[in-house]
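Box S1 | Example of a co-folding query
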Amino acid sequence: MRGDSLTLRGMRNLLPDEKAKLNRIESEIRRLFKIYGFQEVETPTIEPLELFELKSGEEIRHRMYRFTDLGGREVVLRPEATASIVKLVVQEMRSAPLPIKIGYVLNAFRYDEPQYGRYREFKQGGFEIFGTKSPMADAEILEISSRLMEGLGIKDYYIKIGHEGVLRAVLTNLNVEESVQDRVLGLIDKERLTEAFEILGPLPKGGEAISIIRSLWEIKSRDPDEAVRKAGEVLKDVPEACDQLENLREIIELAKASGVSGFLVDMGFARGLDYYTGMIFEVYVKDLKIAVNGGGRYDKLAGLLGWDIPAVGCAPGIDRLSLAMDEEAVPRDNLVCMIVSMVKEGDILAASLAGMLRMKGVPTLVDYTRRDISKALSYASKRSVKYVALIGGREVEANTVALKNMETGSQEELKIQQVVEKLSSHSLQRL
Ligand code: AMP
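Box S1 (continued) | Returned holo structure for adenosine monophosphate
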């Protein structure tokens, strides 16, 4: 079997540059955990099937990697993280002080059709706040989402925002059952309005529902005040929906106060996951047609698992953020020193210098190959090493090294203690 056929479709080998970019995104996410007081957790990759049958949305349920394990249990590779995180909170954190703020960076698996930005294994970060219905928590999730984009140097983005509570209030008011609501909202999410209306049409008040949803669908505006005003007119006879609309208005106002901008209010917006109950949003980057982050309020999911607490959160897609990031933003290796022992007698000196530098946290390579000096220097330059410490017969005798600055080409003869002093300012910070 040839090597190239050993990677499954939709799966990827992540090479150093791509991995460095993904790591950069993950560290930005973890920096935000600290700044906003989220505690990071990890959940199992393999979960029982029931967990995702609860409320994950038809689309995702059909695309799960599911199998029977050797013990005869029906299991899945997690297709998303929220259900697992909710389970963790419900099972393990009942006595934690509220609100509970949980962060994660996890991989997920979906048997999606592979295409640009869509893989069968991908990584999500996540921020979830449990135990409060306050719109300030919703606004904080939007604030974090926008700080993440800025932190990664992505400027051209917008936040598409809507409210599943508004749509659900309209449907509930017209006596549409929750399971039918889930189906209708799933179709609206995929812009399959005709099919959604075919389900509503035959229902007793289906005509009214269709007319309101069609009018809401047309309200898409970069001016939140205008969108809310227009939606208010459409919803004037449905007081429950007006309350939900007021909630959306307040969330946007709070988010704006903390510096979030670039909203696109879309009153016909729904998300494919069944568990959303309130504000929902997706972050888009201009030119990329796929969402790089998504989330919203899901007040009933924890209740299904046995603890009735409200929640709001988001899941930035790490691989997609990487597509949106500039190549210049990719961190380089920042190797500081490469030690080249050109003669066997120099090896002890090389080992001792390498040990001292690394103990100080200075990124250091040792050339093990005893190759031609020009080849060693060419390798150092390809790996962007700043200094090369050369040890030949003369250096062994004098107990020194020749330290070459790769940028300027200049070279100086130094004792190893002097090399350590000179390079220790390049030491890596401990996390
Ligand atoms: P979702 O759970 O569908 O809301 O997805 C959360 C985030 O994960 C999305 O905003 C995407 O950025 C990312 N995502 C979802 N599906 C995939 C996929 N198949 N490949 C890569 N990223 C994905």
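The pocket of adenosine monophosphate is lined by residues 80, 110, 112, 117-119, 122, 124, 291-294, 315, 317, 319-320 (CB under 6 Å). The longest helix spans residues 16-36.
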